[in-house]
Amino acid sequence: MKIVAVELNVIQMPLNDPFLTHLGAVKNREGIIIKITNSDGVSGFGEGVAFSTPWYTEETVKTSLHMLTDFLIPLLQKTPLNHPEEVSQLLSSVRRNNMAKAALETAVWDLFAKSHSLPLSNLLGGTRSLIASGVVVATDSTKNALQQIEQYLEDGYQRIKVKINPQQDYAFLSEIRRFYPELPIMADANSAYTIKDIERIKALDDFNLLMIEQPLGYDDILEHALLQKEIKTPICLDESIVSYDDARKAIEFGSCQVINIKVGRVGGLYEAKRIHDYCFEKGIPVWCGGMIEFGVSRAHNIALASLPGFSIPGDISASNRFWEEDIITPEVTVENGFVKVPSSPGIGFEINEKRLQETLLCKEKFVL
Questions:
Q1: How many domains does the chain have?
Q2: CATH number for 336
Q3: Which residue stretches of the chain have pLDDT < 50?
Q4: Which of these is catalytic: 35, 101, 161, 163?
Q5: Could you tell me which residues come within 8 angstroms of residue 50 by beta carbon, excluding any fewer than 6 positions away?
Q6: 249 assigned to active site
Q7: Per the residue annotation, which of 101, 114, 262, 273 is the catalytic one?
Q8: 333-352, pLDDT tens digit by residue?
Q9: Is 35 a catalytic residue?
Q10: pTM as predicted
Q11: Is the residue at 345 inside a domain?
């Protein structure tokens, strides 16, 4: 698999509606679309999902560009590859910077799958032709949340996730439960609480939630284990899990009962699959998290979520959930609560070149 060129495209699009959490609001989304091409003229695509500011992890679009340009692409240039599983080891000399690594690594997976005329889901070992779709409600208004939930249920989404924090939790969830007593709901705290809030978190057991996601520190495993012993609601870890070893330790310590796997957060599809396989072996349910991403990353998520351990509907919504027009064709759609797993080679979607150019901020090409 001789790679001859790498192209970086930085794009930006406004969201259809602002995405609100206690950490801030996302109104415009920057991202990096990577195109890699082999000596046969076949191209694979990946997406850098870091945000413009370091509110979710320490990475940003600018730091990802720096890492890709000055370190990761040169490493790719130096070493021939036989299989995309080798990319993680190749890039391991660079610490962290998982989203930059994943952007490059996922493009290699797409290229390899296309070169062998295989759907990416098949290459990863996927077993599903349809995946259940969930959606996130991110607003600071109960009225808006109820309106969004009503619309999403009409659209067929099978699971609702709501953002909570100490200023918006018990009363907020109580009102939602009043209207939707049986609805599968999970709550995402994005590390809004501390272990001192244990009684406040215990109270949320009243709402029969599917799970509470990342209630404590973004890098914590130990205190989540203490909390899980005190509450009935399953804890799901997100930000704390950036590697296979993190997932293994969290499960061994009893820090969680569910894990959210995000390809960008863990450094690529190879590490995401390792985490899935370990959780599947241990009987820990996993689901695929979202990053307010464009269609390329969404397509990789669909392939990953076709693996058998993804038993909980993930944050894989339709393209029009966020975008007036996505950068892939066809766009991702949700039908009767499910997303179809593509059967064509690679990620199964083409790049909408017209839309890519309309949203382009800058572009750089490297000939290897």
A1: 2
A2: 3.20.20.120
A3: none
A4: 163
A5: 32, 57, 59, 60, 61, 63, 64, 99, 100, 264
A6: no
A7: 262
A8: 999 999 999 999 999 999 99
A9: no
A10: 0.95
A11: no
